[in-house]
Amino acid sequence: KLIRHWKKWENITDAIGLSAFAVQGALYAQKLNLPISATIVAAVLTGIGGGIIRDLLARRKPLVLRAEVYAFWTILAGFLIGAEIIVSDWALYTLFILIVCFRMVSIHYKWHLPHRRIDTKERSMHK
């Protein structure tokens, strides 16, 4: 029971960190007048960086390398901030909360990115 409780809090704090650092990275790139593509990259790299370090220290495969919807929310934040759709302080706070909520919903409902498995027979034919 304690482990399940700990896992829940790990997911919540991860979602908060993902959102906070994605928004902060995008805002910094926007402050430097970088193009929208660079703003998205800054949001993704700063957003997922802490989670990657955490997973590597725990000797786990980083979440971003699994099929989970993880980096998508940082891409969304980078786009909305880089395209100047989100500009006011209250809109930024709302975006922060929405990204946390979307991340938690994607964990709860086990949303995954679409992927295709290559059959081993098919794989050997391509060699």
UniProtKB/TrEMBL annotation:
Family: Belongs to the UPF0126 family.
Highest rank taxon of the organism: Bacteria
Keyword Aminoacyl-tRNA synthetase attributed: no
PANTHER family: INNER MEMBRANE PROTEIN, UPF0126 INNER MEMBRANE PROTEIN YADS-RELATED
Entries under InterPro entries matching the protein: Gly_transporter
Topology within the bilayer: Multi-pass membrane protein
Keywords, ordered alphabetically: Cell membrane, Membrane, Transmembrane, Transmembrane helix
Chain ranges passing through the membrane: 36-57, 69-87, 93-111
GO CC annotations, alphabetized: plasma membrane
Domain called Glycine transporter: residue spans: 12-80
Keyword Transmembrane helix: yes
Name the record gives this protein: Trimeric intracellular cation channel family protein
Major place of residence: membrane
Compartmental location: Cell membrane
Coiled-coil stretches: none
